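Q: Please design a sequence for this.
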């Protein structure tokens, strides 16, 4: 019998009792099982139970409801020799499931992501030694010291959310390290979320210098053995500080005392597959459940966070100046209508001149283009045929570093055909548009003696390669770095004085709700790489829209004005964070069945004056991984309980076999 939510904590279940066991499967709730003779179980215990003809691992979620016939109720097979799943983690699982309308078992799977950690504890590595503060402490500026004093007083004082806002290079990390130290002094564990942990070698080095040891690292590229030992160390409380990607939020902390979300505005905190959630928002939920403080750090805070500050729900601490006397770089707009690059080139004359002067002075240049590969599109010169992914509504991206054509949505890989499949013309395909590889080719041709490197997620095979590249750049072994957004992620390059953004308009296309905000944040972040030490920095943004509000704000550093204009526009339209949005995507292998079910959902929508349903319509990515997709978008005031409405509405129209209905509360992607 499937049951709903977590039972009371602390109760002990003995022989003959019924317990509800939640399994890490996409089920509606726990199943009832019987406690056998000589068994004693408590809520949170990991157990092995029969499921059909196989055995499964699960968690005792509380008391069973007793509705299952005695003859059909099967017994718990064994309790595992593993630390119990803490009550706070179980409450988080229930909360996330209810908010995102996901099966609780699917959420539990994220907390049970390392099944090997639940088995025997023999032959495990020794736990890491306890962290201790380094003897040499950094000298804080007056602004840093004032903010640090506030944060040091928060561990142990209950739930609170604080925005630590500071310009790039202001030393936000050293400030929240003070809160980390205070939490450790109280014997608590600390969780730090970073958007690109695999590329954060400099952050880890700073942590080690400050605390004498490296933290436990948690992300998808950590080896299975390290994940197994790490999960156990977190559950046992011996892992004092965990730094990780969004999945670290679901680790079973034994005594969490502080959460930090660095670069809280970063879009990679939103998980788009499986259980769809935003790690920043769920970090707020976990901090409230655990009754611990949360620090949100950013140079360009999200509009959602700024709105919470304005409403008095969050506190704001500000660092308005760069640390150590460094100044913010001058930002200039290059109007590509007046200064176009030569044909089949992407570097304008003003940017080329600035690059020449910078390299001649022995300083470094970063060329930024947020597009991987060599070219985003390959076209037949004879008939215009475009090479497209067979599984997705997307063009195949040309990669030359490791020759292939690849879909960046499903991973499909092929190779450029010798003849056009449309017109049979031979050797007729041409690359259209630039990616970082093609931009690097042009830059190397222009500056043949410059030591050049490309920094993109698909040119860095792993964390070690990323760390090596960052070390070369920091040491001055690279003159010219060509990179995507991974080059903008908090790196400190003392000799980097010029940043050239090749296509500042790229993120403004597509009609995304947050397009202007994301562009402002990304451009501010990449601009912040320049002039962080003794040398002054300069930033050139190539744009066809120099009069756009976001470009004007970037040019004069008018962040407050930009966010005020953006907030007014969202408020007038009733868009987040001033209204609610829910995206519903109906998909299936057969286009007609998916379209028909989307139409049935629209027909059954409960019409109310304060609700708006847009669609159904084919999604921009109408075919994704072989599934045909139709989108509906629900718009509602913040006072509406959209979860309750969605349960009743969607539950009344169950999908047919093969058709999937995916719900995204608070969508960030509109593809």
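A: Design:
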């Amino acid at each position: 019998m499937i049951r709903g939510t977590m039972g009371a904590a602390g109760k002990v279940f003995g022989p003959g009792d019924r317990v509800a066991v939640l399994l890490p499967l996409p089920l509606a709730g726990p199943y009832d099982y019987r406690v056998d003779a000589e068994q004693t179980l408590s809520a949170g215990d990991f157990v092995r139970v029969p499921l059909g003809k196989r055995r499964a691992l699960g968690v005792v979620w509380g008391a069973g409801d007793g509705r299952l016939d005695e003859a059909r109720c099967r017994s718990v097979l064994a309790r595992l020799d593993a630390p119990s799943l803490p009550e706070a983690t179980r409450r988080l699982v229930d909360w996330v499931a209810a908010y995102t309308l996901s099966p609780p078992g699917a959420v539990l799977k994220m907390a049970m992501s390392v099944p090997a950690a639940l088995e025997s504890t023999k032959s495990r590595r020794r736990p890491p030694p306890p962290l201790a503060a380094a003897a040499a402490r950094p000298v804080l500026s007056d602004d840093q010291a004032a903010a640090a004093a506030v944060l040091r007083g928060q561990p142990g004082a209950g739930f609170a959310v604080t925005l630590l806002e500071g310009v790039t290079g202001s030393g936000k990390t050293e400030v929240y390290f003070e809160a980390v130290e205070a939490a450790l002094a109280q014997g608590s564990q600390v969780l730090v979320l970073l958007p690109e942990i695999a590329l954060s070698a400099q952050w880890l080095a700073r942590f080690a210098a400050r605390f004498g040891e490296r933290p436990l690292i948690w992300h998808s590229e950590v080896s299975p053995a390290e994940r197994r030992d790490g999960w156990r160390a977190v559950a046992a409380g011996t892992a004092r500080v965990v730094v990780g990607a969004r999945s670290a939020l679901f680790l079973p902390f034994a005594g969490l005392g502080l959460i930090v979300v660095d670069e809280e505005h970063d879009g990679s905190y939103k998980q788009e597959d499986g259980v769809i959630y935003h790690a920043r928002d769920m970090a707020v939920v976990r901090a409230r459940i655990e009754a611990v403080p949360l620090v949100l750090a950013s140079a360009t805070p999200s509009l959602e966070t700024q709105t919470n500050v304005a409403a008095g729900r969050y506190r704001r601490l500000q660092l308005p100046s760069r640390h150590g006397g460094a100044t913010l770089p001058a930002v200039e707009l290059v109007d590509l209508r007046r200064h176009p690059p030569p044909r089949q080139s992407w570097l304008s004359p003003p940017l080329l001149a600035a690059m020449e002067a910078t390299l001649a002075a022995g300083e470094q240049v970063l060329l930024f283009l947020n597009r991987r590969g060599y070219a985003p599109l390959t076209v037949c010169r004879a008939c215009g045929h475009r090479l497209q992914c067979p599984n997705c509504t997307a063009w195949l991206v040309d990669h030359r570093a490791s020759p292939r054509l690849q879909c960046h949505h499903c991973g499909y890989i092929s190779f450029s055909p010798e003849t056009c499949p449309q017109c049979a013309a031979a050797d007729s395909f041409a690359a259209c548009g630039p990616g970082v590889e093609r931009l690097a080719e042009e830059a190397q041709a222009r500056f043949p003696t410059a030591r050049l490197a490309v920094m993109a997620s698909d040119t860095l095979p792993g964390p070690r390669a990323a760390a090596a590249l960052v070390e070369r750049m920091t040491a001055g072994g690279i003159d010219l770095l060509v990179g995507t957004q991974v080059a903008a992620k908090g790196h400190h390059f003392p000799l980097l004085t010029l940043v050239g953004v090749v296509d500042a308009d790229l993120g403004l296309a597509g009609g995304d709700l947050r397009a202007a905000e994301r562009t402002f944040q990304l451009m501010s972040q990449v601009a912040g790489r320049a002039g962080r030490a003794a040398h002054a920095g300069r930033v050139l943004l190539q744009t066809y829209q120099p009069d756009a509000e976001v470009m004007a704000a970037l040019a004069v550093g008018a962040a407050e004005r930009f966010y005020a204009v953006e907030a007014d526009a969202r408020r007038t339209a009733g868009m987040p964070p001033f209204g609610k949005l829910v995206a519903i995507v109906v998909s299936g292998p057969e286009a007609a069945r998916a379209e028909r079910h989307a139409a049935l959902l629209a027909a059954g929508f409960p019409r109310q004056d304060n609700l708006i349903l847009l669609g159904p319509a084919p999604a921009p990515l109408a075919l994704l991984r072989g599934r045909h997709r139709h989108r509906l978008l629900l718009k509602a005031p913040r006072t509406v309980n959209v979860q309750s409405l969605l349960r009743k509405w969607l539950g009344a129209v169950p999908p047919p076999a093969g058709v999937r209905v995916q719900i995204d509360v608070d969508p960030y992607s509109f593809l």
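Q: Thanks. Anything notable?
A: The mean pLDDT is 91. Residues 580-665 form a domain with the Alpha-Beta Plaits fold (CATH 3.30.70.600).
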